[in-house]
Amino acid sequence: MLRSEIHSLRKLSIIGHPAVGKTTILKLLSQNTIDRIYLPTHGLDLKTVKIGDFTIRVWDFGGQNYYFKCSRDHMLGSDLILVITDSSPKNVLRSQELIGYATHFVDKSCPIIAIANKQDLSKPNGRMSPERVEEILNVKTFGLSAINPAERERLENIIRKELNKTAIRRRFKEIEL
Ligand SMILES: Nc1nc2c(ncn2[C@@H]2O[C@H](COP(=O)(O)OP(=O)(O)O)[C@@H](O)[C@H]2O)c(=O)[nH]1
Ligand SMILES: [Mg+2]
Predict the structure, then answer these.
(1) What's the structural domain count of the chain?
(2) Structural domain of 164
(3) What does pTM read for this prediction?
(4) Which of 99, 44, 113, 107 is nearest to 76 (CA)?
(5) Rounded Cα gap, residues 151 and 145, in angstroms
(6) Of 26, 95, 105, 119, which sees the most CB atoms within 10 A?
(7) For 97-147, how does the pLDDT look when each residue is reduced to its tens digit (9 = 90+)?
(8) Using a 6 Å CB cutoff, which residues line ligand 1?
(9) Among protein residues, the one whose CA lies closest to atom 14 of ligand 1
(10) Cα distance between residue 127 and residue 97, in whole Å
């Protein structure tokens, strides 16, 4: 890794319950084609992606409880946490708990944002709108359909904007010191 890349290196952690689309989001960010195979992630999947000036290490944690309990050490030092929900009422409620859990392991300056995934599935299936999910989770929430490669750019922009804000806060801290 080049020196300039180390300076722009950021850690993005993707958390959420099983089968909500965490690994698909990792694929959306790191691959050109997105298959729809569901293979539960065991432990951790790690990829490096470039978004704008940032070199981002994306940590995709297995969603099973066992792994999640072990994952707190992996969450430490995150620059951004994405909490993924599949936008079903049951899952959104369960995700509240995850957000509470995550706040214990990250610095106050690390934003936690939610992704209301699977927005392509119709409302009769009980999918909630991103606005409704945001009201419940009380963190900034963006709707997504991770199986659609056309959504890549929008997701990249969301991530880049959040990381830019943390970069500005870092610079202010340096000036204060
Ligand atoms: N319809 C739909 N299916 C999705 C979406 N995102 C992921 N999936 C599917 O949901 C299943 C679980 O996805 P995966 O990313 O492996 O979930 P993970 O356990 O959270 O990593 C797979 O079959 C995916 O193709 C989405 O936005 N819409
Ligand atoms: Mg997975």
Answers:
(1) 1
(2) 3-176
(3) 0.91
(4) 107
(5) 7
(6) 95
(7) 889 888 887 888 899 999 999 999 977 767 999 999 999 999 999 999 999
(8) 16, 18-24, 36, 38, 40-41, 63, 117-118, 120-121, 145-147
(9) 21
(10) 19
